[in-house]
Amino acid sequence: MKNVLFILYFLPFLNSCAHITNASVKIIPLHILTQTDTFHENNKTSINHIEHFLVETKNNDTAKIYKAINDYVKKNAPLKAEFYEYEMNFYMASKKVNFERINKYPETVTDLFYTPKDPHIITYDWFNGSFAGVIKYNKGNIIKK
User: Fold this and answer.
1) Phi, psi of 115 (to 5 degrees)
2) Mean predicted confidence (pLDDT) in 42-69
3) 34-48 per-position pLDDT tens digit
4) Cα distance between residue 31 and residue 126, in whole Å
5) CA 93 to chain centre
6) Residue 107: φ, ψ to 5°
7) How far apart are CA 71 and CA 89, in angstroms?
8) Is 143 helix (H, G, I), strand (E, B) or coil?
9) Of 75, 72, 32, 43, whose CA–CA distance to 56 is shortest?
10) What is the SS3 string spanning 8-36?
């Protein structure tokens, strides 16, 4: 009984740490990098929220990787209406860019992310609760908007 209670208690936490969208692609929220900014202008308050995710896979099929990310976004994006801007950024994991290193040295993230081999692969954007689009990247350069 204690084991069942332990599993039930920690299941939401374990689920929030890593989501597997299919057998070959693992998406890990990088909570330590989450940003929320509040702006006040013309008696109006706006909240921008940016989340970051690490994509781990041995699969080289970019179409399958993009599909897995898209499925993850459809399933896990929170209500965007509460934010003026809501953004989900996905980065490809590597030996240099990995969950352990990011959590241990979060201040070095900009050094890791903005290199000639930039791991940023895709961003999903919402403005005023409406989907604004997807931006795909290759080595830091926009390849599709």
Assistant:
1) -125, 170
2) 90
3) 889 998 888 888 889
4) 19
5) 12
6) -70, -15
7) 14
8) strand
9) 72
10) HHHHHHHHHHCEEEECCEEEEECHHHCEE
